[in-house]
Amino acid sequence: MPLEAYRRGRIWWARGTVDYNGRPITGYIRESTGASEESGANDWITEREDRERRVYLIGEEARQLTFNDALLLYNPTSQMALALIPIAAEFGEMLVKHITPALVRDLGPKLYPKNCTDYWRRWVITPTRAVINNGHDLKGALCPPIKIKGYSEDERIAQDKKRKKASRIERRPGDWEWLLRFREHAAPRPAALALLMYVTGARVGQAVRMHPAKHLDLQNNRICIPGAKGHEDRWITIPVELVVELANLKPKTPRGWDRTDKRNLRVFGYASSCGPLKAWHSACEAAKIDYRSPHAAGRHGFGQEFNVRQPVDEKAAGQFGGWKDLALMKRTYTHAEDAGGKILAAFRTGLEHAEKATGLKLMKSGS
Questions:
Q1: Three-state SS for 102?
Q2: Cα 193 from Cα 34, distance rounded (Å)
Q3: Buried-most residue among 76, 216, 272, 365 (CB within 10 A)?
Q4: Residues 6+ apart with CB under 8 A from 166
Q5: Strands 11-16 and 4-8, sheet pairing
Q6: Nearest to 297 by CA among 187, 174, 209, 195
Q7: What is the DSSP string of 224-290?
Q8: What structural domains does the chain harbor?
Q9: What angle (nearest 5°) sits at the alpha carbon of residue 322, between those of residues 316 and 325?
Q10: Average pLDDT, the chain
Q11: pLDDT attached to residue 220
């Protein structure tokens, strides 16, 4: 019988057992909660149940978590789980309180000596920090939190020299000319996908998750972009060209999925963001254009189009494209184009105005 509160005189008591997954994990408990009100007794019961379940899962020393203990309490995504396998092999039996930021940072080059510092941050620092801080955030703070600095610019440059390969290569965003040439040689699905990402700012991972019944309202010129990275789903109005494109695209179940289950239908028919890559490469080769990844051609292209080439209200661009942080949009998703030409033109304009105003010349006659 689960713990329940009952009154004895002026004080509330608790009786019953603590259960886990439908079966008792303690003997019969009959104890005073010390509370004079039922709400206080219920709080006591909640705390007692949490404590007993922690002891059941990780032993008497509830605060002496190993990394493996903390890992059992964490619910990772599939990609995060993949990253955690080699980390657990290194830190598994180590007490979390003994795992220092320096140890985590040093694990990057140990596990992935040929990769860049950004890769170390994503595949070592981020998952390790997530597991440990999840243990701290649980009720009762099962372990101390951890703060881990990323790698410095000097460390990034040194690693790039060591592996003889540059990281953080500037993405070349999509543009209308590139998009039209790409679509001329692309199959219908990657062609439609490229157009959707370019005019909406959707990430490829969001686009491939779109379900025809859940995310399309073409009669009203609307689509829903699935939520990602802390953002909720968002409905947006799309241009008629994209409406026609999507209306002519037959939904498809990804290869290997159950075709009898209508929930498995996808607008573009891809199982993941990797699905369109082979066809994407082929279209670029056939069109004899430079390769631009779906993310660069799509989301970066959107950011560039509506912030640099055809500047609009940045709040409108951010809201439509799904950016809460406008500074991130401007910093990451806009790129310099023809920087030299623009600077030289601006130099010439400024000089001409100044010479006209002063009657003086920068270059003297005969010089």
A1: helix
A2: 63
A3: 216
A4: 160
A5: antiparallel
A6: 174
A7: EEPP-TTPPPEEEE--HHHHHHHHTS--BPPTTS-TT-GGG-BSS--SSTTTTHHHHHHHHHHHT--
A8: 4-58 (no CATH), 67-163 (no CATH), 176-332 (1.10.443.10)
A9: 80
A10: 87
A11: 94
What are residue 12's DSSP bridge partners? 7, 35
Report the alpha-carbon distance of residue 172 to residue 251 in Å, rounded: 31
Q: Mean of the pLDDT values across residues 127-137?
A: 92
* H or E element at residue 108: helix 101-111
Higher pLDDT: 267 or 349? It is: 267
The two structure tokens encoding residue 144: 């101390």
Q: How far apart are the first and last CA of the chain?
A: 101
Question: Can you give the pLDDT at residue 62?
Answer: 46
Name, in order, each residue with C-beta under 8 angstroms of 167's C-beta and a sequence gap of 6 or more.
Answer: 116, 117, 118, 156, 159, 160
DSSP 8-class letter at 324: S
Q: What is the rounded distance in angstroms from the CA atom of residue 1 to the CA atom of residue 21? A: 13
What is the spatial distance between Cα 350 and Cα 367, in angstroms, rounded to a whole number? 21
Our CA angle for 132, 66, 128, nearest 5°, is 30
Question: Do residues 51 and 62 touch, judged by C-beta distance below 8 A?
Answer: yes
